[in-house]
Amino acid sequence: MMKALIAVLAAATGLVSNIAAAQESPWLVRARAVNISPADKSDAVGGTGAADRITVASKTIPEVDISYFLTPNIAAELILTYPQKHSVYLDGAEIGSFKHLPPTLTAQYHFAPGTGIDPYLGAGVNYTRISSVNLLGGKGGLEKDSFGFALQAGVDFKLDKNWSINVDVKKVQIRSDVTISGAKASAVKVDPVLFGVGVGYRF
């Protein structure tokens, strides 16, 4: 009898939790501070010599993302920022800079919706628009567009009904050919790891 009562109480608790999760607003907005740490992989310049001579500086940027929950467990997240300027180096010497705008869309699975600690995993696509390229005094160039995959892992720590603290890590595929006087000189794999910490608000 006691075991049956415990089972009924456990089922009821789970039902209440699911109902509470289902009643939450589907919209979640987060603001994060994100550190971009590039992989700094590149082909040999001009096809000769050592690889990985071209590097891109790390940077901390602001980020805003908007999530929509299709179900309590499944969400779509759009990650946004404004164009970011990065310095570029060859053998440690600065050779110029460029700006990039990298909106990313991921699909997430949340493992514990409606609870105090909700970890999640995500995967999706990244589109990076490269602009304001100024390399080697104007002789160097980069491709304008980059498409790639994105992987994500994170956790929300709920503070109350609306507010939460978020920790998030993403690996994003960003790649571009490097040209000198119009001819391809190398290919870079920026492929950064993005580590973010921020706050979320669920409407």
Automatic annotation (TrEMBL):
Keywords: Signal. InterPro entries: Enterovir_OMP (IPR000758), OMP/PagP_B-barrel (IPR011250), OMPW (IPR005618). Coiled coil: none annotated. One of its GO terms (biological process) is transmembrane transport. Residues 1-22 form the signal peptide. One of its GO terms (cellular component) is host outer membrane. It is found in: Cell outer membrane. It comes from the Bacteria. This is OmpW family protein. It comes from Zemynaea arenosa.
